[in-house]
Amino acid sequence: DAGITQSPRHKVTETGTPVTLRCHQTENHRYMYWYRQDPGHGLRLIHYSYGVKDTDKGEVSDGYSVSRSKTEDFLLTLESATSSQTSVYFCAIRGQGWSDTQYFGPGTRLTVL
Amino acid sequence: DAKTTQPNSMESNEEEPVHLPCNHSTISGTDYIHWYRQLPSQGPEYVIHGLTSNVNNRMASLAIAEDRKSSTLILHRATLRDAAVYYCILNGSARQLTFGSGTQLTVLP
After folding, report:
1. How many whole angstroms separate alpha carbon B69 and alpha carbon B85?
2. Taking CB atoms and an 8 Å limit, are B96 and A58 in contact across chains?
3. Residue that wins the pLDDT comparison between B102 and A27
């Protein structure tokens, strides 16, 4: 158990509204990640963080922003949600060492109507 | 970044060993080979990883070819709870994990 929680676990919202998803870790890990998973695709990296206030873009970052004001929390914001952002969102942390092993949260299912 | 190739699906009988193959012919010398699995409606779960030598843990074994161009995840005795999508991933030069579509393992009772 890597001590990762995500909130909310489920959310339904309307097109054009802002949405913020939260990832919280209790293990003080430096690296945190946000992925999305859609049918027919594996997980795709949205953004990641390598420290407080240090973030970078992943493969599918358009339409998303992130913030990390403290080590334990990594927030993913959809400024104006679109139906194409309907997906399951997973947060992950990277464990210690050079192997880059990641540990995942339980996911947030977001539906944009 | 180097890519991996896995069969789309495999079947196994319960309580029998399962060998899940992965090809990674363009692997670089510093790439770790990772295996994750994803059970229905859950996040991916770390299974095992290795660099050059075969590895064992409580969940599985990882057999890595001598030239490192392929590897095999071995579940010694499949159970119904092992039915999942199994991903073989290399961490790559950017030290990120890029997930492919994986192998859907079905375990038959």
Report:
1. 22
2. yes
3. B102
Residue A56's SS3 state is strand
Could A107 and B43 be called an inter-chain contact, meaning their C-beta atoms sit closer than 8 Å? yes
Shortest CA gap B45–chain A (Å): 7
Tokens describing residue B30: 């510093």
Question: Among residues of chain B, what percentage have pLDDT more than 90?
Answer: 77
Please report, to the nearest 10 degrees, the dihedral formed by the alpha carbons of residues B40, B33, B18, B15 taken in order: -70
Beta carbon pairs, A and B, within 8 Å: 47
Q: How far is A59 from chain B (nearest CA, A)?
A: 9
d(CA A19, CA A21): 7
Report helix, strand or coil for A83.
helix
